[in-house]
Amino acid sequence: MRRNKLYTNYYAEFYRLPRRNFVPGYSVRVAYAKNAIFGSDTDRKLRLEFGGVLNILSPDKDKAVFTIQPFIALSNLLSENVTNGKQNRAKTFSEKTNAGIRIGIPIRQQVTVGR
Fold first, then answer.
1. 90-108, pLDDT tens digit by residue?
2. How far is Cα 75 from Cα 47, in angstroms, rounded to an integer?
3. Which of 21, 29, 43, 75 could crosslink 35 through cysteines, CB 3.0-4.6 Å?
4. Alpha-carbon separation of residue 74 from 9, 16, 38, 91 (angstroms)
5. H or E segment at 69?
6. CA angle, 12 as apex, 75 and 23 as ends, to 5°?
7. Does the reported pTM lie above 0.90?
8. In Å, what is the CA distance from 39 to each residue of 6, 36, 53, 107?
9. Is 19 within 8 Å of 33 (Cβ atoms)?
């Protein structure tokens, strides 16, 4: 029996945004991906990302002028192995953990497609 090989990717995001300047909110993102295109049915990843959200609002308080989002991400909560020469070992927690910062500036003009 022949199986179709596909790449699947599912994710869910949750944001709790502040309504005042310099009051932090938070965000959580969970993602699952399975890659079976290259013949590896065991290439699965479950990623968790969480962090704060800091909006700097415009004077009329209806739009964010600037957004800063520091985050910590765990690249794969499932077991993942590393091949080092002839040794095959599981990745450690510190090898799966990374941190970053996103900076958002809103686009003032709407983009239209097909005009």
1. 777 777 899 999 998 876 5
2. 5
3. 43
4. 16, 20, 24, 12
5. strand 64-74
6. 90
7. no
8. 10, 5, 39, 41
9. no
DSSP state of 86: T
Can you give the pLDDT at residue 88?
Answer: 74
108 phi, psi to nearest 5 deg: -75, -30
The string of DSSP codes covering 16-67 is: E--SSTT--EEEEEEEEEEE-TTS-TTEEEEEEEEEEEEEEE-TTSSSEEEE
* Under 8 Å between Cβ of 52 and 26: yes
Does residue 36 come out as left (phi exceeding 0), alpha (psi in the -120 to 50 range) or beta? alpha
CA gap 76, 31 in Å, rounded: 9
Higher pLDDT, 59 or 27: 27
Q: Are 81 and 88 in contact (CB under 8 A)?
A: yes
Locate 84 and state its tokens.
Answer: 């080092």
**103: CB partners within 8 A, 6+ apart:** 66, 67, 68, 69
